[in-house]
Design goal:
heterodimer; A: 273 residues; alpha/beta; 7-stranded mixed β-sheet; 4-stranded antiparallel β-sheet; 8 helices; globular; B: 252 residues; mainly alpha; MetI-like fold; 10 helices; binds adenosine-5'-triphosphate; binds magnesium ion
């Protein structure tokens, strides 16, 4: 159940023949402080994400989760280590990656639809096709009737859905989610995470989810990575062998509870990782 | 019921306080018998305004033209500079000290020189207005272009947006409310700039009218001209605000 902590064997289905969506080896990140000091935020981290899998990351606040995601996104460069995305060097942002940030980051001066279409504008994708795709995504997320409103007219959950649509517009192979539901209430959170689970299965993408909610991590993930205190390393890599599609009843399964206790024990140091 | 009546009071409050003040002024001027050439009563000012309406309109038009002309020219000149300063650190280092120096020179002091250089046309007055308006617009625009939240920049970067795209889709819209803040400050300064230059050397404009009417002890006319200037300034401010509400329709 608990795959050995890295470095070590990746989950069983990985084989040398399959190119990893993400492959990090010995990656560290140190931020230069303003007063000459520096913050060792992350690593060394080894991480391999199989194409089509959903990987959740949990860890204490400030342990470098966002840093990990920003590195994978190409928004930050590592101080040490090698990073690859689909077999090629990862050295900057890519249109193959869609990101949903903790805050929705929607522009208030354009409509929801125009926000969703932003990647198409930046990447100069064909207009008509993009528009059609945007409308389909908005329909899938129940926002069709709000397409022509400004985002500030939407509720928090709706904004986050719109941000998800925007991240999916360019049909990215890899979806990065940094506490996408962090700012939402518990009910909306659960509803949206189940929705995300459904959409992810429907769209068949690789996903990396940062969260501080253990249930959410298990409910959505094929694997749950537990990070240590800063500088964050991956302490434990737990395989989530729960059936899909997952739904509101998944959390009631004994196996779900079992995994949940396992994760909690590791996080709160009641078990040896 | 209570809410609507309190709203009514709220709406009526501003005109009401003005009326009360005017009435008090009228009453005091009447009872204290202040000579009209020192402080005329509102009724006397009103009479002067009616009597001299053609002059007031003609000179008001001149001042309005200088004010608006200089204000628009200041926008045209400061926008490219603001963009340059915000995009280029070297330009910022070179230009900001010069512009700050220019701004620190008292405009009243340079007005005679400007008139010396540009001669007796409308141009020296427009130049003084530009000098007065330029800085608030520039400073606010630069601040606006740099007020972009990091999260939004990250989003654009993650999409691989070019600097041009970041500017057009992100920096410019973020800067717009700041730009209008600068414009609102500048447009009220603009009226002052126009009047200063008319004080120094002119044959027309409301500043000139104030100057000659006080020299000839036509104090009620001077007051009428001042009142018109004030109205002009308020109207221009609201004009800019009106355009702002049309353009910047996303801030609450
Ligand atoms: N740009 C930066 N410059 C300097 N230090 C930074 C920067 N970004 C993050 N840090 C530091 O790096 C460490 C890890 O930050 P990070 O945002 O990755 O943590 P996190 O796990 O996402 O935290 P949280 O759960 O609170 O979101 C923190 O100590 C933080 O102060
Ligand atoms: Mg974070």
């Amino acid at each position: 159940m608990i795959a050995a902590a890295y470095p070590g064997s990746a989950p069983p289905r990985s084989s040398a023949a399959v190119v990893a969506a993400i492959d990090l080896k010995g990656v560290t990140k140190t931020y230069a402080g303003r007063d000459g000091g520096s913050v060792h935020a992350l690593g060394p981290v080894d991480l391999r994400i199989e194409p089509g899998s959903f990987v959740s990351v949990v860890g204490p606040s400030g342990c470098g989760k966002s840093t990990l995601l920003r590195l994978v996104a190409g928004l930050e460069l590592p101080n040490e280590g090698v990073m690859q995305r689909y077999g090629t060097a990862l050295d900057g942002p890519s249109h193959e990656v869609g990101i949903v940030f903790q805050e929705h980051v929607l522009f208030p001066w354009i409509t929801v639809l125009e926000n969703v279409l932003l990647p198409a504008d930046v990447l100069a994708l064909p207009k008509a096709i993009s528009r059609e795709r945007a409308m389909r995504l908005l329909e899938m997320t129940g926002l069709k009737d709000f397409a022509h409103l400004r985002p500030q007219m939407l509720s928090g959950g709706m904004k986050q859905r719109a941000a998800f649509c925007r991240a999916m517009l360019s049909d990215p192979r890899l979806l990065l989610l940094d506490e996408p539901f962090g700012a939402l209430d518990a009910l909306t959170r659960e509803e949206l995470s189940l929705e995300l689970s459904r959409l992810w299965q429907e769209l068949g993408r690789t996903a990396l989810l940062i969260t501080h909610d253990i249930e959410e991590a298990i409910l959505l993930g094929d694997r749950v990575l537990i990070m240590s205190e800063r500088p964050g390393t991956i302490r434990t890599d737990i395989a989530v062998d729960l059936p899909r599609p997952r739904n509101a009843d998944t959390v009631k399964l004994p196996r779900f509870q079992e995994i949940k206790h396992q994760v909690r024990d590791i996080i709160f140091n009641r078990a040896q990782a | 019921m209570a809410a609507s009546s309190s709203r009514l009071i709220g709406r009526a409050a501003t005109p009401l306080i003005y009326l009360v003040l005017l009435a008090a002024w009228e009453l005091l001027a009447d009872t204290l018998k202040v000579p009209a050439w020192i402080l005329p009563a509102p009724s006397a000012i009103f009479q002067a305004a009616v009597k001299w309406a053609p002059e007031l309109i003609q000179d008001g038009w001149v001042t309005l033209r200088e004010t608006v002309g200089g204000f628009l020219l200041a926008i045209v000149l400061s926008l490219p500079l603001a963009i340059l300063i915000s995009l280029n650190p070297l330009a910022r280092k070179l230009l900001y000290p010069i512009l700050l120096g220019l701004q620190s020179v008292p405009k009243v002091a340079v007005a005679p020189l400007v008139i010396l250089w540009f001669g007796l046309s409308e141009w020296p007055k427009i130049v003084v207005v530009v000098l007065v308006c330029f800085f608030p617009i520039l400073v606010n625009m630069v601040a606006g272009l740099e007020a972009v939240p990091k999260t939004m920049l990250d989003l654009m970067r993650s999409l691989g947006a070019s600097p041009h795209m970041v500017f057009r889709r992100l920096r410019l819209p973020v800067a717009l409310p700041h730009f209008f803040t600068g414009c609102k400050v500048a447009v009220t300064f603009a009226v002052i700039g126009a009047v200063i230059s008319e004080f120094v050397a002119a044959q027309d404009g409301l500043g000139y009218l104030i100057l000659i009417s006080t020299a000839q002890s036509q104090t009620p006319l001077a007051f009428a001209a001042i009142a018109l200037l004030t109205l002009l300034s308020i109207a221009l401010f609201h004009g800019v605000e009106f355009i702002e509400r049309r353009v910047v329709d996303w801030t609450p």
